[in-house]
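A reminder before we start the practical. When you read a complex entry, don't treat the lines as separate problems. The point of joint prediction is that each chain is placed relative to the others, so the output describes one connected object in space. Small molecules and nucleic acid strands, if listed, are placed in the same frame. In the example below there are two entries. Take a minute to note the order of the lines before looking further.
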Amino acid sequence: MAEVTYLEAIKQALDEEMTRDNNVFILGEDVGYYGGAFRVTEGFYEKYGQWRVLDTPLSESGFTGAAIGAALMGMRPVVEMQFADFISCAFDQIVSVAAKNNYRWGGKTPMVIRAPFGGFVHGGAFHSACPETWFFNVPGLKMVAPSDPYDAKGLLKAAIRDDDPVIYFEHKFLYRRIKGEVPEGDYLVPLGKAKVVREGKDISVITYSAMVHTALEAAQALEGEGISLEIVDLRTLLPLDKEGIYASVRKTNRVIILYETPRTGGVGAEVAALISEEMFGHLDGPILRVSAPDTPVPYSPPFEEFYLPKAEDVIKAARKLAAY
Amino acid sequence: MDISKNDLLQLYYYLKLTRRIEDRVTALYRQGRILGGAWTSNGMEAISVGYAYALEKEDVIAPYFRDMGAFLVRGITPQRVMAQYLGKKTGITGGKEGNVHAGDIHLGVFGFPSHLADNYPVAVGAALSFKIRGERRVAAACTGEGGTSRGDFHEALNMASVWKVPVVFFCNNNQYAYSTPFRIQMAVKDVAERAKAYAIPSEIVDGNDVVAVYSAAKNAYDRARKGEGPTFIECKTMRMHGHSEHDAAKYVPRELLEEWKKKDPIMNMERYLLSNKTATEEELKGIDERVTKEVDEAEAFAEKSPLPEGRDALEGVYATPV
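Here is the predicted structure of the whole assembly.
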């Protein structure tokens, strides 16, 4: 198995799917001739031609709508939002049209929206956001957010082959910072399945995307204190793998939910509600959330450092919880 | 344009069928038997009948809510339409949606989202897929003049023109967006002027003349099939009822309605067919009787159709449940 970056894994998935199926095509801003703002589609224009890696005008709503129309006609479009932040411009097409087509009138809409998201890149309020929570309340959508190259490739291939609209959140901070083993050739990571990335016995940290790495850092630091963290990577945010969550809670009886979005109404709120409804008898202490505060993402380094959840925050929460 | 007698009589049939179905819907709504809303295309039937009839079977439409005629032309049966209005299991969407909020992918009819002009970019995407795959199909999209002030309208026209895809945009300019008259919706004199900004050829037609709409549509589809790109067609008409049946539309001057009453699209077509001797009074009467029978049967079918089970509301959220 070859070691590749998170970005290379995404690229491999797109390339393999486009070779496998002529109906797969990419559209978005600067994805063609330029190769994408993050160079994910570099070389695709030469390989697949302008109509399969289509440069669009600055029309997020328009080209998301166009992807919906193509999907209805049997294509498998992959939309690239240059930054996940700009997905707000396409909100209506995603929630009113794509998400409801199948339910309202049987209009099967197989499409993927790739959304590069997250902080740690000094991008300020409009190049750092994690907008997944906006879509968390929209039946008909699926959402995934891989944390490592293996899942990045396998989940993207599965998302492209899925018959529903899938928002694929890829973390900008991870693009070139992490490497991992990715098998040669075809494999899929199924949607809707969480993964235990670190076994532990005392506290479950339920998290996803870049925060998985923050949790791993905390887990290592806590080893010396005799606090053992189990880390559950949700991988699919919508629909949530409830059983995967419950299995870990049964084992540890203590829960921290870690996420990079503002605190209020985040994925953590729903996971906490599910656990308190279904697993109350298994809990030895309160469910704690470690998240960003309720502010836009600030720019200046001390601000951003303060804003983003850190291993230290997880460690503090774990110590508090271990006392129960 | 040469149009066969059969086609002319079919156009007349669909005009009558659309009017009769929507009149029936209005009556049922007033009796409280249709819940929610009832939006009709009364006086505007020629637009959706004309643009849909000019299409080929493998083409697709992205309609809006005054396009009942297009639904019927594409083959959505009066039975399914009436059952849809009554929320029945046999309706177009099986009760998931009401009234004109419906679509049928097998008949090339995209579902209508209430957010006007949302379907414009969707139609561009369908046309884009025809271009990528080298198919000689076209997509037709329609919205009211109200929807042409939304961003999606402008994004769609721009993309369609830059990509030169086979899509034809129709605008039902019925002069009112709910209560808002044209003059305070936009500063241009004609909606068609908006197409110029995107280098899209446009045409203004009499929206109450089904033959004019059909002919303009046919020419535009031919252009699109030849790879010459999109066309914008503004159909001038007048909304003869309120925005929906609950709305008495007191904001519309009576004289305006009186004036447009004389230009009714069905009357126009009857005059046309009789004056050039394409059809006899008897033939038209025969069509009228057929339409009445079909709508009666459709209503009876809808009445006796079952309602869906409440718990089945959970079905169909995903095409592939996880």
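Discuss with your neighbour: Chain B has one domain: 5-305. What might explain this?
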